[in-house]
Amino acid sequence: MALTIPSSTKRVHLAKRPKDFIDGQTFALETIPLRTPGPGEVVVRVDYVALDAAMRGWIRDMRSYVPPVKIGETMRAYALGTVLTDAKTVKKGDRVIGMFGWAEFVTVGESSLRKITPPPYTDALDFLNLLGLTGLTAYFGLLRVGNIKPGETLVVSGAAGATGSTVCQFGKLLGAKVIGIAGAADKCKWLVDDLGIDKAYNYKDKGWKDAFKKEVRTLDVFFDNVGGDTLDFFLTRLNQNARVVLCGAISGYNSQSFSGLRNYMALITQRAKIEGFLTMDYADQYSEAEAAIARWIREGKLKRKFHIETGLAECPQHLALLFQGGNTGKLVVRISQEQARL
Ligand SMILES: NC(=O)c1ccc[n+]([C@@H]2O[C@H](COP(=O)([O-])OP(=O)(O)OC[C@H]3O[C@@H](n4cnc5c(N)ncnc54)[C@H](OP(=O)(O)O)[C@@H]3O)[C@@H](O)[C@H]2O)c1
């Protein structure tokens, strides 16, 4: 594909903060001039953007680990792109990842880019999934916070999503008995039949909690992506010295009010730990995790799954899929004509 530099770019910016679910007013598409790069800057063509559940938090005006996206600002998003201009550390044609946002082209400082070289049996797009934030979150959450050990029982909520399905696979690789919780029968079937986990429960089925109590009974590590009632239920299922890994709480991301946990006293009686974490706190150990994940991929021990949508203008509707259970595996949107080889 020709690497020509346009004079303008389409982008999607935050137009109005949603009260609950993202709607037609939340974002707006526009065309703006593309800034000419200054010293130390390059133009990048955005090829794919990752859609992450955390993005709902980024448009909420509240104290968090990053400042909220401002009204009128390009929607923040991790992305994979191609460099279109030469600079000191990158040259035309290099594949890079960075926080490019929902845009066709961006002018960015070269120090904000990471040039990538896909390891054997991977594609550049894997840096938005197993070799990116998703894989790193699963790795540090399960190994460092969950401290999973062979033979232990691991329960994963949001199990068929990007993070959850990676945690499930890491759990099996590390010798745990893995139970997944997901919101559809076909997702549960994929987890058991394709990813090889031990059992999966559809949380939309009546009676799934009773079935879990009867069949699995208790757990050692609960890796939670969902929060709310799901977390509250699993607090009643802890073994002694269990670890509850608070990765996310997607059931509350579109809500203004949160109800508290009722069963937290189980943490006392079971001498259990509950701990939240952010992947970025492990930045100094990313290379260790990336090497382990690349090795597992090379050895054929990890399966990657993408849910690929297309179109910059449609990013808002695609983002909403995460909150409707519309994705299995990693949700990404292709923005340019550059196709990943998966
Ligand atoms: N701590 C960190 O540093 C960090 C980093 C990355 C991600 N995370 C967290 O990891 C979690 C997963 O994020 P992701 O980007 O990988 O998304 P994802 O799991 O690929 O997609 C979200 C999934 O959540 C499920 N879901 C949505 N609403 C739900 C509800 N009300 N109750 C139960 N399940 C619901 C849906 O599946 P079903 O069909 O099963 O409902 C959906 O497919 C999020 O909580 C995110 O905030 C944390």
UniProtKB/TrEMBL annotation:
SMART domains attached to this UniProt entry: PKS_ER
Cross-referenced Gene3D superfamilies: Medium-chain alcohol dehydrogenases, catalytic domain, NAD(P)-binding Rossmann-like Domain
Domain Enoyl reductase (ER): 24-333
A GO molecular-function descriptor: oxidoreductase activity, acting on the CH-CH group of donors, NAD or NADP as acceptor
Keyword Nucleotide-binding found: no
Pfam families: ADH_N_2 (PF16884), ADH_zinc_N (PF00107)
Keyword Lipid metabolism among record annotations: no
Signal peptide positions on this chain: none
InterPro entries according to UniProt: ADH-like_C, ADH_N_2, ER, GroES-like_sf, MDR_fam, NAD(P)-bd_dom_sf
UniProt KW keywords: Oxidoreductase
Protein name: Enoyl reductase (ER) domain-containing protein
Species of provenance: Hydnum rufescens UP504
Lineage: Eukaryota, Fungi, Dikarya, Basidiomycota, Agaricomycotina
